[in-house]
Write a structure and sequence with these properties.
It is a single chain. By secondary structure, this protein is an alpha/beta fold. Helix content is 30%, strand content 16%. It has a 5-stranded mixed beta sheet, covered by helices on one side. The protein is globular and about 50 Å long. It binds zinc ion. Zinc ion (ZN) is lined by residues 57, 59, 82, 110, 113-115.
Length: 183
């Protein structure tokens, strides 16, 4: 009996001349090549120039650098769903302050946040669907101002953070672009 060695079977998909629609990440890669053409290394080190960490929602409408007048190298920006202060946010803030010299913390929530419509039922539904309860809390809220206050409180009372004198919280209005400070 003769054994024929395995050979790859030619397929249409293997034809590299077949045009494919670029994905959004393909466009990132192309944009980055253009970016790098004019990019100049500012010679900064890892410590933020303005000695501030900003904790904000991941919302796509929030352009923090433009909205806060920040330049490259100025600030640490820590973003998550809701801009909430979780254990992992405290982890980043602790490193920001103790290893990288920041002194101030600004917290930014915003109007129309996706978390406003959610409840902790989200977790229970997730558990029913996948058979496992997530370790994390959804951190959903109904009271925007109250949640900013709670976030400020979590930062101010963290035993890991040496600098809690300058902690301020805001709500960004996605329609006007204005920040409203929460006392
Ligand atoms: Zn949000």
């Amino acid at each position: 009996m003769t054994v024929t060695p395995d050979r790859p079977t030619p397929t249409a998909a293997a034809d590299s001349t077949t045009p494919t629609t670029p994905t959004v990440i393909d466009r990132f890669v192309a944009s980055n090549r253009e970016y790098a053409v004019t990019f100049r290394d500012g010679g900064m080190d890892a410590r933020p120039v303005q000695k501030i960490a900003v904790v904000a929602c991941m919302d796509a409408r929030l352009d923090l650098f433009a909205a806060l007048g920040l330049e490259l190298g100025d600030a640490h920006v820590i973003r998550n769903a809701g801009g909430v202060v979780t254990d992992d946010t405290i982890r980043s803030l602790t490193i920001s302050q103790r290893a990288l010299g920041t002194r101030s913390v600004a917290l930014i929530h915003h109007t129309g946040c996706g978390l406003l419509g959610l409840t902790e039922d989200f977790r229970r539904e997730l558990e029913l669907e996948v058979g496992q309860r997530p370790q994390w809390a959804v951190e959903a809220f109904v009271d925007l101002d109250g949640d900013v206050r709670q976030s400020m409180q979590r930062v101010r009372t963290s035993p890991f953070l040496p600098h809690t004198d300058d902690v301020r919280g805001f709500v960004f209005d996605v329609h006007t672009g204005l920040l409203r400070e929460i006392d």
